[in-house]
Amino acid sequence: TFPGLAARNPWFGQSRTAQPRASWRAMAVLAAATMELPQKQLPVPDGFLCPITQEVMQEPVCTCDGHAYEREAIEAWLQRNRTSPLTGLVLPSLALTPNHGLRRAITAFLEARPEVERARLAQQDLQRAVELREQELTGKISVQEERISLLETHTRRLTDQLKSHGLEPSPSPTLAGEDSFLWPSSPGGGHSGELAQAPTLSVDAARPLVALLAGGPPAAGAAAAAAVRDVAAGSSERVAAFVAARALPPLVKMLQDSLPEGRRNAAGALRCLVLGSQENGEAVVEAGALAPLPRLLEDDCPDVRVHAAALVRHLVSGSDQRAATLVDAGVLKPLLTLLQEGSPEGRAEAAGAIRDLAATSGEHAAGLVAAGACESLVQLMQEGSADGRARAAGALQALATRSTDRAAGALAAGALTALVRRLREGGGEEAAEAARLLCSLVAGSEERKAEALEAGVLEPLVQLLDSGTFEGRAAAAGVLWRLVYGSQSRATTVMAAGALWPLMRLVETGTSEGCMNAVLAVQNLANGLHEKTPQVPLSVIDRSFGPLLRLLRKSLPEVHAQVPAMLRSLGSSLEKRAVQVITVEALRPVVRLVEDETPGARAEAAGTLRNLVASSDTSAAAVSAAGIIPPLVQLLSRGTSSGRSEAARALQSLACRSGERAAAAVVAGALPPLLQMAEDASPEGRTHAAAALRELASSPGRVESLVDAGGVPVLSRLIEDGSPEARGAAAGALRNVVAGSSERAIAAVARSLSGAVVQLLASGVDDVQDEAAGLLWGLAAGSEQAAVAVAEAGAVAPLVSFLGSSSSPEGCTRAAGALRSIARYMEEAALAALAADAVQLLVRLLESGAVAARVEAAGTIAILARGSDERRASLASAGAIGPLVRLLEADHAAEGTSGESDGQAEVAMALRELTAGSDERAAAADAAGAIQSLADMLQVGRSPTPAAAAAAAGALRNMAEGSCKRANKVVAAGALGALVLMLEQGTPECSAVAAGTIRTLTGGEEPGERKAAAVSAGALEPLVHLLEVGREISAECRSSTVGALRNLSAGPAERKAMVLRAGALEPLVRILSENSCSLDCVEATGALRNLATGSDERKALVLGAGCLEPLVRLFEEGPEEGRNEAASCLRNLAKGSQERRKSILAAGGTRALE
């Protein structure tokens, strides 16, 4: 059986006498070195067992012939014999010598095998329990004999009383005789045990007793109640006979009897009649039993109080209304008094009643805790009877359930110490109740879990898990999975305590509850395992898969869904082998279940695979590789409603993680059955089908397949008449469709569906509203016609409302994106958004939204601010500038959102629009740190897109205008180098904005240093190249370039010479010659004037470049500003040279010189 053990231990399998002599220490070492087998499979060495008791020796001693025995056993032997127990030979000496080496070896072995010692102690406890049971049964037999005699006395007395009232007792049944009944005792005359050889009782035979209850004198009624109690105890047939004879109303009436004996007997009889019968309990309540119960709980007779507590327990079970009535009537206080001061049975019944009352209402539980019930229950757990201890644990569990405060109160009352004791010493139901209470105490609290472990609950829990009842093992597993949940250290501790193998056995052999709890415990243990955890050898993980896979064959659907997650968790500690384990071991039986003929099995297997696919990309790839897609498609066509739903959900999970798997599903034919499901399945099935179609349509190629399969009309109808969830999923699918469609198709969808989608925004379901906003965004971004259709459907106000109410980051992103797309094409939509108070919502989104949502909000703000200084002021007053700058500074602000949208561009555009035309807003942006952020954004390493670069440069230009200080900041931030690079390599738009920004930086007040910095940055050559012949540039770009050259040409002679060397003279003269009425001519004239100032040589160059005629024409025909510039330039050229003056006069410039 153990070939590995036999190979390592040559003595294994031989008798003890055949083993060669060796030191006990060597035997211990060999016993401990038995490889990787689980310890419980290792035998106890024969040498460790006493030959007399056959148990592991605790104090080994040797006789004079060298044999070892347990001291107590050999001493008892030698008191009667002088021979050796093993050889039978006479011992020459009775002296005993302690064998210290053997004792140390046994100690070392027991440390490695703690369960051996536990088994020995358990055997001793079992023997003691047998002795106590024998004593108990002997006492019960004696009491039974007394009860039989008592019953005979009751029968004779009742017969006499019936005769005295003219009533003849029925001749049957005969109630006397020793062989008729066996009565287990119950304090106070009540009986709750079983009857053996019990006679039947007819309704007619019960009626005389009932008549005496209803119409006899008090003493006779009390005796009749006692007879009912004794006869009905333990027999459902006799209980039914008394109930049918209408014994309940007179018994309830007797509860208010003035005779204590009558109250006691009536309460005891009612207790027997309602036991185990909900129908009888309701009849007792209808007879008015609830009203006297509070008084009975305070009765002077102890037995009455016990019976009243038992009645409370039976009557409130399963009825919140009766519990509330009794609490309002004041039963809590007397119950607590009985719990504290009553007899053992009374305390047990009070604990049971408190348990059932607390289970009906959290308010009742809170009242009991406030009244001090926890302390009394803990005391009962420590010193009560077995029944009392179990019920006290159940009551504490009911008090602690669903309330951390009440659980803390139970702990503060000392429940943990009592629980550990009950787990160690209690048996059966008592230990199970203790474990269930522990579940409630540790649930949801890391602090209470730590306290439980410190109190020592782990060892008795593992023992209960190993050898308890089915209920106890299930409860112990429930505690363990809660203890290890979310904590690697606790998982390691529980694993080291030996919990894994009992849990795995419970997975295979437990009840449904036990199996589920064990599954959860193993899963949470596996989540805490790591490859380097010394307490968890790899063989443990490997051997855990077998039971989990066999679990798939059990008819426990609620457990099946947990198995893939456990396999994933166990495999995660062996990352390289995880895929192999899941594919080879787990998926084959699951895939076969999908193909099974049993509809239920197919649905369950599809659900299991769905969970596995959703767990990770690795698992999804393994499932796909196992060939599951075709069976899932078949299940879509031929499965049950639940099977089709599970298949659709599994395909959705497969498709959302991989475009390749989505394509495989389309090729396998998933679209037609999914579209059919979207038409005729249940509401839930239509939702799952639409969700799967949404994922399958996530690429242009698959969108075409969906359109060709008729998907657009189906999805459109689903949006109009489906459930909110189905409509949301359909909206998501159509969003993917429009993302891959032409502008014409998008406009058609927008015209037909915008109204329905807008209505969907008001559904109140977050996911549905998210999808609706996404579809509106996709439609509005698709084309101008679609955006107009969306706006005309009234989407603006609902989008703004959704933006204010949604807590979904994705939903806010989509709503802001839709507003931006609509406002881009329609000025009316922008005004409508402002009228709907969108400004504050957008600013709030900028401040606290997700990055993608903040970027879309920035884009919307940029569009709303466009073209209106009033709107810019409103947005700035709402506080938009600061969040925009912070967004620009964020690490991820440069990430795009969706489609072609660029985060940098949106934020920079918003800042550019807000800072335009206002020194106040420009100063606010500067104070927020915008200049450095924008300059950093333009740096080469950041690689901004052209749109982002142009927007950033434009924002810098706005902030530099009108402020020497801010212009100097822009230069100091290092923006000039990036601007020059934009001139050289940028798009036409980038070049135009860069030239304009350089023009602004080199103008204004005190521009000298900024001009020098621009020249040093190499701005001259790129500016001149922009004006080269044949290069197409915008009028804005040409104007900005000429203005920048004009600014740079003013100043020191050296810089003027650099401008000329850069070749600026020719393009300036050409611009002057082309159109004498343009502003460019004015700027070019100013540049020429600057170049000519201060040097006859440069004047000659300018004049020689052919500027004389254009200047005279500008003076004669140009605007006033142009005429002034031309006159100034001509006078400058004429100054200092008669020859140049004559040339000017000859060209017709006489008036200009005057």
UniProtKB/TrEMBL annotation:
CDD domains attached to this UniProt entry: RING-Ubox_WDSUB1-like
The protein's name: RING-type E3 ubiquitin transferase
Catalytic activity: S-ubiquitinyl-[E2 ubiquitin-conjugating enzyme]-L-cysteine + [acceptor protein]-L-lysine = [E2 ubiquitin-conjugating enzyme]-L-cysteine + N(6)-ubiquitinyl-[acceptor protein]-L-lysine
Segments forming domain U-box: 43-116
ARM repeats mapped onto the chain: 246-288, 288-330, 456-498, 585-627, 669-711, 710-744, 879-929, 929-974, 1018-1063, 1063-1106, 1106-1148
GO biological process terms, semicolon-separated: protein ubiquitination
Region (Disordered): 163-196
Source organism of the structure: Alexandrium monilatum
PROSITE patterns on file: ARM_REPEAT, U_BOX
Gene3D superfamilies given in the database record: Leucine-rich Repeat Variant (1.25.10.10), Zinc/RING finger domain, C3HC4 (zinc finger) (3.30.40.10)
Entry EC no(s): 2.3.2.27
Pfam families the record matches: Arm, U-box
Any one GO molecular function term: ubiquitin protein ligase activity
Family annotation (PANTHER family): U BOX DOMAIN-CONTAINING (PTHR23315), U-BOX DOMAIN-CONTAINING PROTEIN 4 (PTHR23315:SF7)
Lineage, uppermost ranks: Eukaryota, Sar, Alveolata, Dinophyceae, Gonyaulacales
Domain of life of the source: Eukaryota
